[in-house]
Amino acid sequence: MFKIAVVGAGYVGLTTAACLSSLGNEVRCSDIDSLKINKLSNGISPIFERGLDELLLSSLQSGRLQFSSDNKWAVEKADFVFLCLPTPQGMNGEADLSYIELAAKEIGQYLKSGSIVVNKSTVPVGSTSIVESELHRTDVSVVSNPEFLREGSALSDFFNPDRIVIGSRSPEATGMMKKLYDSFSSPIIETDPATAETIKYAANAFLATKISFINSVAAMCEVVGADVRVVSKALGYDSRIGDSFLSPGPGWGGSCFPKDVAAMIKMADDTGYDFSFLKGVVAVNEAQFVRIVDKAKKYLDGSVTGKKIAVLGLTFKANTDDLRDSPSLKICELLIQSGAIVTAYDPTVSGQIVGISIFESPFDACSNSDAVIIATEWEEFKTLDYAKLSVSMKNPLIIDARNILNPEFIRGLGYVYEGVGHSL
Ligand code: UDX
Fold first, then answer.
1. 22-52 residues labelled b (16+ CB within 10 A) or e (exposed)
2. Is 22 in the pocket of ligand 1 (CB under 6 A)?
3. Is 184 exposed, middle or buried (0-12, 13-18, 19+ CB in 10 A)?
4. pLDDT tens across 346-360, in order?
5. Atom 28, ligand 1: which residue's CA is nearest?
6. pLDDT of 123 above 90
7. Is the pTM of this model over 0.85?
8. DSSP H helical segments within 169-250, as ranges?
9. Any atom of ligand 1 within 6 Å of the Cβ of 247
């Protein structure tokens, strides 16, 4: 087993630290946020991720996982140093590498000779070389090992990756990485850093493409009278297409797709290639938010001004508490801009969001509302007491942006119902 440092205790870093320590490695995880570090040292996870609390506690109790705000303490004895730092979207879509550059400059002073710095964050193509230069060390290697973790299933995605990508120019470093992942049965792609970095962007861009594609097919289905749910199912049987990421919805969001797709477009632009196809994927996504709001307007005499619209689900998808780039919040913004009074309920969200009245129960959020928009596919929204809900509403209208309800059943309760991509 190895001594491992993880720099950055966010969604990726925390998952990586907890999982690697549960495999028997000795892990030290550092983060500049001392409040977060204190919570983690006491087994309190700042993120909502199925199974992470338990894994965190067992790793802490075993003594194989420790937290600190001190990067020097974390990295000085490490065989591997995972950089799991934010690469936020810059003003023009490019990825902001300042966090990674700063960390590399700092840890370069403390790394032991022969250690391997592992770029886990999603970083623009060419970043491995940037980290190498910031480290100012010739006796350590830098490897790209992109993560493919989905929020809500991060642990299972870590332990059962579809593939492990290792991007390195050093055969020794690649060999060491393969030893680290020795207990995994997944296929390993050994390649150069630039190719490894491109694989990550291409993966997210393609997944976003699949979603924008099915959302476009859904829009077509609505005008030709077809049912996108059946179209999607039939497409999924084709092994060349696959059945995942073909669920129409309010559009894609989250902390990765919007940032990574924009970065890929910017990288292409910077090299003189106009990735117009991917720009179209983004345009379809932006239009999807508007389409959902237009569905509500359609049943409210063309306007939501002065109307009370309840939004069920604020997170960017179910089984996470993450609001970053949430399509639901984009829809709320459009509703507010159109003069609507917006209320909301989400099982993981409380507190204040400007312009939105957030309630602790779906019934309070929907009380006296002119329409309900289901924006996130939380399990509890599938089994809500819609008969009781309709009584509390001023106007029983449901826009089901995730197609999670049975239209016949809902209409049987007296609702006007519209989903995405079908008129059934
Ligand atoms: C994504 C990638 O899946 C993961 O591999 C990468 O490491 C990080 O980015 P994540 O952002 O957690 O993971 O969310 P994901 O499950 O991919 O969903 C992204 C968005 O697409 C969400 O808004 C989701 O609601 C939407 N989506 C997903 C659809 O609208 N339809 C689908 O069929 C699937």
1. bbebbbbbbbeeeebbeebeeeebbbbbeeb
2. no
3. middle
4. 999 998 899 999 999
5. 245
6. no
7. yes
8. 171-180, 193-224, 228-236
9. yes
The ranges assigned to domains in the chain are: 3-191, 227-418
> Among candidates 281, 289, 291, 95, which has minimal Cα distance to 197?
95
Q: Which CATH architecture has domain 3-191?
A: 3-Layer(aba) Sandwich (3.40)
Q: Which of 19, 29, 84, 256 is catalytic?
A: 256
Tell me if residue 366 is catalytic.
no
Same fold, 3-191 and 227-418: yes
Identify the burial level of 94 via C-beta atoms within 10 angstroms of its C-beta, where 0-12 means exposed, 13-18 middle and 19 or more buried.
Answer: middle
**What does the mean pLDDT of the chain come to?**
96
Average pLDDT over residues 314-339: 97
Q: At 121, which amino acid appears?
A: S
3-state secondary structure of 191: strand
pLDDT at 121: 87
**Is 80 exceeded by the pLDDT of residue 424?**
no
**Fold held by 227-418:** Rossmann fold (3.40.50)
